[in-house]
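Risk register update: the risk of archive-format incompatibility is retired. Evidence:
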Amino acid sequence: MDLENQQRVKDLTEKHGAENMVVLLGAAEAEAAGLAAETVTAGDPTFAGPLAGVELGLRAYHAVEDKFKGEVDASVYEDQIGMMEMVLEVDEIIEEMKNIRDEFCKFND
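Archived output:
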């Protein structure tokens, strides 16, 4: 997650409260999604950005997870994301996101 987006997440969390935030990710690889999720939950693991050492504990989901899919119109999802599900390692992404939430998320679903 780039430094600008880290600052946006930090500012929005301060404004709205961490309990009211959900971060939606769309990285194409499980490792990249996990790194971004870790950044908004446990803090920037590279210690380079505004979230270095900042444990927000936010809920973070990937766009291919059922929790997100169930919240959007099925035809819109299919049109915007459906094709990507055929080329992404969906199970790996879902497992990575779940592991990050289980370890670092401060809020129950």
